[in-house]
Amino acid sequence: MTPSPTFLGNRTLWEGEKTAYLCSEKYPAGAVLRSLDWARAQVKAGCTVISGFQSPLERDVLNILLEAQSPVIIALARGVYTKPLREHRAAFDAGCVLYVSVFPESIVRATHGLAERRNRFVLENADLCCIGYARPGGSLERVITETGVVTQDI
User: Fold this and answer.
1) What are the structural domains, with CATH classification, of the chain?
2) Which of 11, 14, 8 is nearest to 84 (CA)?
3) Does the model's pTM come out above 0.85?
4) Cα angle vertex 48, ends 45, 52, to 5°?
5) Closest to 39 in 3D by CA, of 23, 15, 17
């Protein structure tokens, strides 16, 4: 059973519809343009995007969303922050950021195992799950398969 999440930021983002975006650490070049175009489309549509925003391409997507002050839920593979990160401050102050974690505050460093558990949490709590790229045989592909969540490739 997943523990109750803890939050920092605009809690109303959690109550609305959420679109997950996840991508493997390693991905083909073709995934980049598709994912960045997808991020811009989410901005235009006003969608709330939930992700760990940990892999390089996930971080690029986050940068597009934050710059546009589009709503994002940043799921942490560690305990929740006590204050927003400096690079998220403008969007946080505008009410566009929510940090969420299912891990105790005592956990201050993400690990591979925690990231897998976080990705499972993201998939299970999203209304729509979009995958930038899931490396065949990789941990993201395994988590998708284990959760049984229906995903769509970007």
Assistant:
1) 6-153 (3.40.50.450)
2) 8
3) yes
4) 135
5) 23
pLDDT one digit per residue (tens) for the chain, 154 residues: 567 999 999 999 999 999 999 999 999 999 999 999 999 999 999 999 999 999 999 999 999 999 999 999 999 999 999 999 999 999 999 999 999 999 999 999 999 999 999 999 999 999 999 999 999 999 999 999 999 999 988 8
Q: How is residue 63 annotated by DSSP?
A: H
Of the candidates 154, 130, 50, which has an alpha carbon nearest to the alpha carbon of residue 144? 130
Please name every residue paired with 51 in a beta bridge, in sequence order, or none if there are none.
74
41/65 Cα distance (integer angstroms): 10
Beta strands in 17-79, from DSSP E residues, in sequence order: 18-23, 48-51, 72-75
State the CB neighbour count (10 A cutoff) for residue 116: 16
Cα–Cα distance for residue pair 84/81, rounded to 1 Å = 7
- Cβ atoms of 38 and 16 closer than 8 Å: no
